[in-house]
Request: fold
Amino acid sequence: MPTIEPVPMQDIAPDVRATLEKAVADGRMASPTFLQIVAYNGALLRMHASAYQREQPSLLSARLRELIRVRSAQIAGCDECQAARYDETVTDKTAACLIAGTQDELDEREALVMRFVTKMHLDHHSIDGAFYRALARFYSIAEIVEIGQLTATLLGAHRWIHTLDLLGKDATLSYSRAEVDTKRQGCASTAT
Reply:
């Protein structure tokens, strides 16, 4: 059981539940567990669930987005995300090359983006003007912005998912319908 007990599927809005179930059935999501946790906030769940629709508006290819997602999951140690594949061109062999640091399965453009993802996770201070100029040899500024935003989003998400211990045995915070879409009152200020 994850740290936060997932919202039961039957308590998720039928349209969103159908999207999640279809994404699992189609192999675009290994498990709905993470999004069942996100379901405590309905608006946030709908935003995340929309990411599992087949066609996403993007300047980047589906393959490159998937390579970024898989590499981010590898570095962050997110086993569930590493196992899922949302683009059939990214195979287990391709994923293994990302871990090994070989470029057998990548073209020069993709290899450079994988270096960017790795640097963002492990040494973001090393990304300087020269590195951005190298990216600009292959990508427009709009594409570079999307690469950066996607990497940053995944970096944070994978770290958070890891803290949830999705395969853990004991829930720290148990499910209660009363906790869904609920806001608690803040503490009174003690400042004078």
Notes: The radius of gyration is 19 Å. The first helix runs from residue 14 to 25. Residues 103 and 111 are 6 Å apart (CA to CA).
